[in-house]
């Protein structure tokens, strides 16, 4: 009798799992892959700063990404081209935390909030440890909303322009995600 119950339970569980799989595929459709390159327009000081220190250690009033425990909040304009006057496609909102004692890694927690017509209202959540002094840094895309629902993938970050006289940098972000 116990053997019959286990067999019935196994069959029921298998049918339930198969039904769940079929329903989830029908609801969301097949996975799609999207790749894109976007540019973060980053002002890290001055009257138009889009990146500001929140807390951490400073040296005589100077905040640094190289100091363990320093937290920065950001709200960068994201454009489709390197030039700051190219079309805005969204905002990069979140924080950076210098998370390595020697200052070599930064924990990146950024929401890419799309404002352009194609993806308006959709988001991608970028997260990971960024070896901040490397030429190219790689982080994960852990989630998304709207047109990027259930997204997962990766992004590479590279500083392609730096002008210290006006506290300005441009970060190229190459994104590859799969999503429904």
Would you mind describing this structure in some detail?
The chain has 180 residues and is α+β, with helices and mostly antiparallel strands. Helices cover 15% and strands 52% of the residues. The chain contains one helix and eleven strands. It has one helix at residues 2-28, and strands at 32-43, 51-55, 58-59, 62-63, 71-79, 88-98, 105-114, 123-131, 136-145, 152-163, 168-179. It has an eight-stranded antiparallel beta barrel with strand order 1-5-6-7-8-9-10-11. The chain has a two-stranded antiparallel sheet with strand order 3-4. The longest helix is centred in the N-terminal third of the chain and has 27 residues, at 2-28. The protein starts with a helix and ends with a strand. 26% of the residues are buried. The mean pLDDT is 88.
Tag the structure with descriptive keywords:
180 residues; two-stranded antiparallel sheet; globular; alpha+beta; 11 strands; 8-stranded antiparallel beta barrel
* Percentage of residues in helical conformation: 10-25%
Give the H and E element order.
HEEEEEEEEEEE
Report the span from N to C terminus.
Answer: 44 Å
- Residue fraction in strands: over 45%
Instruction: Figure out the total of helices.
Output: 1
Number of strands: 11
In angstroms, what is the radius of gyration? 22 Å
Which regions are unreliable across 5 or more consecutive residues at pLDDT < 50?
Answer: none
Main β sheet profile:
8 strands, antiparallel, barrel
Helix/strand class:
alpha+beta
